[in-house]
Amino acid sequence: MADSASLLRHSQLLNRLVLDRQTTEALGRIETVWMHPPAHRVMGFICKPGFMSKQRYAFNLKQLYRLGTESILVSSRAAETTLKEVRLLETLMGHEVWTDAGENLGRIVDCLFDRKTGSITHYLLKSGGWRGFTSGIYQLSPLAIMSFGSRRILVTASASENLPLFQEGLEERIAQTSDRIKSGYTQELESLTSRAHKLTQQAEEQLQKLTQQTSQKVDSFTQQANHKSENWGQQVQQGSQKWVQQAKHQGRTLWERVEDGAFNLTEDWSNPLPPEDERQGYPPEANRDLEQLTQDQTVIKNIPLEDLEDDQPWI
User: Fold this and answer.
1) Of 71, 140, 80, 85, the residue nearest 108 (C-alpha)
2) Do domains 7-87 and 96-167 have the same CATH topology?
3) Percentage with pLDDT > 90 across the chain
4) Distance between CA atoms of 5 and 238, rounded to whole angstroms?
5) Beta bridge partners of 197
6) CB atoms < 10 A from the CB of 151, how many?
7) Beta-strand (E) ranges in the chain?
């Protein structure tokens, strides 16, 4: 709590350590905020020195020297009092709030007051959901209070129509937290969706690029294969033609050789028999064989040349 704050809350003083500014002696902790409800003022505070002690120390607001985060420094000496006297002090803390129409608005749980004068600017009312109010803390002006007793406060019905909100209730905080979580979740989901969409586009681009590269490689391979196939076919065709030519050449050569051999054989058969003067000394069987050979030669000579050509092995 800042020392320069002009408005203080009743709850901000309770149970705070009280130190003497001159001696730094711990005087105890604040047990009660001293109030005067008819004037709607905070007069000071009551300090309890020990857990079992019946003694009390009373300080007014003018003795409040400095307000720290964990303690209060006071100047001058405190006025001693007793627990019995403290219990006689009036307070509106914890009182129920009712309208003059008989409707319960909630309960007083705190108040705001001026640090210098002690004047209460607003009582803080905790609502339980009355008349559509969600549970929370609302500000109730002291001017709206008609009367009060030992346990209840009575206010006008018109004062309850537009109570300013001081602090949101648990439901509102949960709802706001839920909204923030939903908002954060939505933003995160949108971010993840955007990243997923971006990654999908990159994957599609990579896939398209890979498909184009694969298609180009396949086309190149096909062209190379077709080119090699054409070359191989040409080589096979050329080899076949060369082989056919060689085979024909060898066939002609063989036929020429056969034809030459047949011609020589014909020439040898033209006069196969020895002269008759040489055959006189041959035996009778030899002369008979020579005569048969002469007859066979005569038959071969009478065969037409076309009949011999039909038996050619190659043309």
Assistant:
1) 140
2) yes
3) 28
4) 111
5) none
6) 8
7) 7-9, 17-20, 26-36, 41-48, 55-60, 64-67, 71-74, 79-82, 96-99, 104-114, 120-127, 136-140, 145-148, 152-155, 165-167
Angle at Cα 147 formed by Cα 143 and Cα 150, nearest 5°? Answer: 125
Range 96-167 classified under CATH 2.30.30.240: yes
Measured distance CA(239)–CA(242) in Å, rounded: 5
Contact call for residues 35 and 90 (beta carbons, < 8 A): yes
For the chain, what are the domain ranges? Answer: 7-87, 96-167, 253-309
Q: With 50 as the cut, is the pLDDT of residue 171 above it?
A: no
- 220/167 Cα distance (integer angstroms): 77
Q: How far apart, in whole angstroms, are the C-alpha atoms of residue 171 and residue 127?
A: 12
What's the CA dihedral at 129, 169, 151, 114 to 10 degrees?
-130
- Which tens digits make up the pLDDT trace of 50-85? 888 888 999 999 998 888 888 899 988 888 888 888
Report the distance separating Cα 146 and Cα 155, nearest Å: 5
User: What CATH class has 7-87?
Assistant: mainly beta
Q: What is the pTM of this model?
A: 0.52
**145, 155 contact by CB (below 8 A):** yes
pLDDT of 223? 76
Q: Give the closest residue to 217 by CA, choosing from 232, 233, 209, 231.
A: 209
Residues 6+ apart with CB under 8 A from 106: 96, 97, 125, 126, 127, 128, 130, 138
Q: What is the pLDDT of residue 169?
A: 47
Cβ atoms of 172 and 134 within 8 Å: the answer is yes
Whole-number pLDDT of residue 209: 81
Q: How confident is the model at residue 46 (pLDDT cuts 50, 70, 90)?
A: very high
